[in-house]
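Now for a typical sample entry:
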Amino acid sequence: MSEIMIKSEKPAIPVLLPSLHVRHSVKPWRFALALILAPIIVAILFFWAYFIPVAAVVFGGIPYLLFGGPVFWHLIHRGKKGIWPFALGGFVANAAFCILGVIWIFGAALLNGRVPVSFHDFEAFLILYAGFGSVHAIAWSIAFAILYFED
């Protein structure tokens, strides 16, 4: 009893997200330069606004690199192009940082025995990072996409 097995070209489970199977190479030098230069260029272009973009580079540079960098790498690796996927990715990365920051502040307040935790513990952080940070995250993400994909 020998049976002949016929290989099917179609997968057994339909693929709903075909982009998950497509891998695009990330150009490391271009990625690093765009990631570092994007906030600096935005700060140079808009420094006249009370030096807020310059201060944003100081306060938001590390969260931008730690949270935005992996998001941008993932978007490029998945083949996303254009400014809007990166603007959304930068906004989401900033939101994730803000959520983790609030959890961190809340945990630190609880460990120091300050119960109940007041809104004043979060106020400066939320104004700085959720307020100004959201705007700058989007601007830096758009600048990153323009710098990375510019040929």
